[in-house]
Amino acid sequence: MAKADIDFEKELWDAANELRGAVSENNYKNYILPLVFLKHLSERYDIVHDELRKQLQDPKSEYYTTDKEEMNYVLEDTDEYRSRNTFRIPYNASWQYLKENAEQDDIKVKVDDAFDVIQELLTEYNPQLNNLLPRIFVRSELSPKQTGGIINLLSHPKFSEKENPETDILGRIYEYYIGRFAMAEGSGAGQFFTPGSIVRLLVELLEPYKGRIFDPACGSGGMFVQSLKFIKEHDGDKSDISIYGQEMTAQTLRLCLMNLMLRDLSFDIKLGNSLLDDKFPDLKADYVIANPPFNVSNWHPEDLPDGDPRLFGPKEEFTTDGSANYMWMQTFWHHLSDTGTAGIVMANGAMTSSTKGEKNVRQHMVDNSMIDAIVRLPDKLFLTTGIPACLFILSKNRDGKDGTHRERTNEILFLDASKMGTMASRKLRVFTDDDIRKIADTYHNWRTVVTSSDPDDKSGSYREANEIYEDIDGFCKAATLEEVQKQDYKLTPGIYVGTEAEDDDGIPFEEKMETLKAQLLGQFEKGEELKQQILENFDKF
């Protein structure tokens, strides 16, 4: 991590610590993030306002005019700002105004009033954004000094999008806080935060260049933001993707909406329980990327209609009140387009669960060739839960008819990444770029069109653009459906990939045995000496 990033983080956490004593740590996000969001909208307005003013004064621009009245009309025209993906922010709701009044005794009132003004603009633009910025400062235990302190800290030039164009600086601040608040929130944070390592891996596996992306358990929107980063890194166009999401917690939904607006992404995010109240019944997505809550019990499958189109069979046989894991799977599959792919974070137990309502679904998925790959993850990737996890990749393009991927209907790729990752701290493991590349490349090489140099090669090696897929002991194995069926439909990668080969040190086996034998005999002798010494000591009493 670069030194600049460490300084960046320290100052951001200092800003959060202004809340200490007046607000519990797991509520920091409700105060800090709306202010970061307001700052973003205010700075976006300033940037567009300055651009418009320059165009009005530039003789080469179609906006050029010397008429003061016309200038003012353009600079105050709401549509000019909306067409540039921002809002015209009145001065009393601007970041500049809050900064100038940060030392005033009524700063809490001024912040809430600014929220009201911006909320009105947001609701008029999109009713889904209603109640995004509720009045929370006046009724909080925060002192005016603490409120002003946060505003002053967030006003640092290094946190300014105007001072640092093209850096997504406010987006990075937002991401940092969501991560830190997840640490503070503990196990309850899983509902809005998936660690960056896992999100990056999922996105690299699925490669969502263009099309409809859906996350029916979208939390704070991390899957969408990482998809955007992937598109940028590969010189794609964010206008090529459409984002759909559902989230059941209103507070988390607010985080998601702000997160997406910070990135100027178009979206349709709805509030509701995806399992019992699917808000997008007709949506068919090219990519489903999700980290649903693990092992949710008492979710009331009896409330599902008998003919629910998501179910693979009768609900009595294909659901269980003991865990919603496989209802999520059926939901994801239902929402895939004819060539769509889903990447899902799941509890490890889903790979082997023998409960009827879960095993029936898993068996159906294997028998009907729905599962493309399973990735076992290492421990300590989550700060918010100790439950070991894996990735399920489901796909509807396994028939090889899309022209890009080969036919693989009779195979499932198993990847065991349980020994990968690096400890970033005593409690948290992260995947390095190389780890992510190795896992994603293995998957991509396995599923791409076969152009083998040897048409008679049946060994399980595939070649495309000089990239070769091969089974590697202890890491990856392309198993047939028959092999999985013989293992009673268990999907644990370790069953199929075997044990990683020991590094050969070049010493012959016989020589190793002689050395071990000599060491053992020496230890026996030493043990006998100690035994005699202890007995002699007893005799002295």
From TrEMBL:
Enzyme class: transferase
Every DNA methylase adenine-specific domain range: 167-504
Gene3D superfamilies: 1.20.1260.30, Vaccinia Virus protein VP39 (3.40.50.150)
EC number from the UniProt entry: 2.1.1.72
GO biological process: DNA restriction-modification system; methylation
Xref: InterPro entries: D12N6_MeTrfase_N, DNA_methylase_A-5, DNA_methylase_N6_adenine_CS, SAM-dependent_MTases_sf, T1MK-like_N_sf, Type-I_RE_MTase_Subunit
Coiled coil regions, renumbered to chain: none
Pfam families: HsdM_N, N6_Mtase
UniProt domain N6 adenine-specific DNA methyltransferase N-terminal: residue ranges: 9-123
Database matches in SUPFAM superfamilies: S-adenosyl-L-methionine-dependent methyltransferases
UniProt GO MF annotations: DNA binding; N-methyltransferase activity; site-specific DNA-methyltransferase (adenine-specific) activity
Keywords from the UniProt entry: Methyltransferase, Restriction system, S-adenosyl-L-methionine, Transferase
Catalytic activity: a 2'-deoxyadenosine in DNA + S-adenosyl-L-methionine = an N(6)-methyl-2'-deoxyadenosine in DNA + S-adenosyl-L-homocysteine + H(+)
Family statement: Belongs to the N(4)/N(6)-methyltransferase family.
PANTHER family referenced in this protein's UniProt entry, alphabetically: TYPE I RESTRICTION ENZYME HINDI METHYLASE SUBUNIT (PTHR42998:SF1), TYPE I RESTRICTION ENZYME HINDVIIP M PROTEIN-RELATED (PTHR42998)
Name assigned to this protein: site-specific DNA-methyltransferase (adenine-specific)
Organism: Pukyongia salina
Lineage: Bacteria, Pseudomonadati, Bacteroidota, Flavobacteriia, Flavobacteriales
